[in-house]
Amino acid sequence: MIRKGDETLNKQAVWFPDTLEKTYKLKRQYYYNSCLIAGGTLLQTEWEKGIQCPENIISIENIKELKEIELVTKYGQSFIQIGALTTLDCCRNNPIFLENVPILVEAVRNIASPAIRNRATIGGNVANGYGDVIPALLVLDASLLLYDGDKIKVKKLTECIKEKNFLLNSILVSITIPVQKKNTRENYFYQKIGLRENFCQSIVSICGYFKTGKKKVIEKVHLAVSGSSFLPQRLNRTEELIKELLLPPCQFNEIAQSIKKEFNPPSDHFSSSNYKQDITINIIVSEIAKLSSK
Ligand SMILES: Cc1cc2nc3c(=O)[nH]c(=O)nc-3n(C[C@H](O)[C@H](O)[C@H](O)COP(=O)(O)OP(=O)(O)OC[C@H]3O[C@@H](n4cnc5c(N)ncnc54)[C@H](O)[C@@H]3O)c2cc1C
Q1: How much distance in Å is there from the Cα of 282 to the middle of ligand 1?
Q2: Which of 22, 122, 134, 159 is most exposed by smallest CB count within 10 Å?
Q3: Which domains can be identified in the chain, with CATH numbers?
Q4: Does ligand 1 lie within 6 Å of residue 279's CB atom?
């Protein structure tokens, strides 16, 4: 393990462990006086804003198993497994993503500038709890592989996001997403609403998936929202309401009411809670309306 920084000259140290075990040991040893760092793009902005930088920065960039991307098959189902250190630029440009999870590519396309995406990692985006890839991963039914100091366990992202500090005692190793064969009856959408068109924080990012049956019935629905001022969530009750509806549906009012009931983001300096609800309703309802004409 390499340690850069000299305690006699400067109290700050950057550690470069090369295994998960060594990383976890450091994390336990320094606990509140440390943080893991991947691409550093988010942490750097936090430190610039005045949030105190801990004395021990644990870089995970030398851990090989966090860089792997592969297609695996388990029990007849294919999965794409994405190492936590995979950069957003790689998610955007590597054909394996375009072929298997194009909606994730669309989410990444909406994040920051090319220079940031070149350093920023998918793991850092998920780990910070507010990243724009999260709604796409929720809709894709992703699971996280988490190292807890003893073993690697698999946990659904929908479960992880229920706890604010879900990574307090774990290291995110990789993200695994079930891959489906392309089907013309399946439709995805992703929309990010920010204060301006590019390079800005999200007011609301909305992602959805619909599968329609032969008789124009909506058979499957996944809907997820995230934003820089609230924790991401799946809209489970609205999904239940939409499931089994016949296209074109006449229940738009009920759908709008259901979203209003289960999605209650806080107001912030720039936009009110009502505004966030209204754009979410408009986008979801218009995507359902589009299904009818397909
Ligand atoms: C100008 C600018 C614009 C941006 N625009 C956007 C945007 O539009 N959308 C968006 O979502 N984000 C945006 N960001 C934020 C950031 O770039 C991304 O969220 C990025 O994906 C974070 O990844 P990172 O590797 O740089 O994370 P880091 O900064 O290294 O880490 C972020 C957090 O995740 C933790 N962490 C990282 N990896 C792991 C791991 N494997 N296990 C456990 N914890 C881990 C760190 O401890 C830290 O708390 C922007 C940042 C900047 C500077």
Answers
A1: 29
A2: 159
A3: 2-59 (3.30.43), 64-179 (3.30.465.10), 186-292 (3.30.390.50)
A4: no
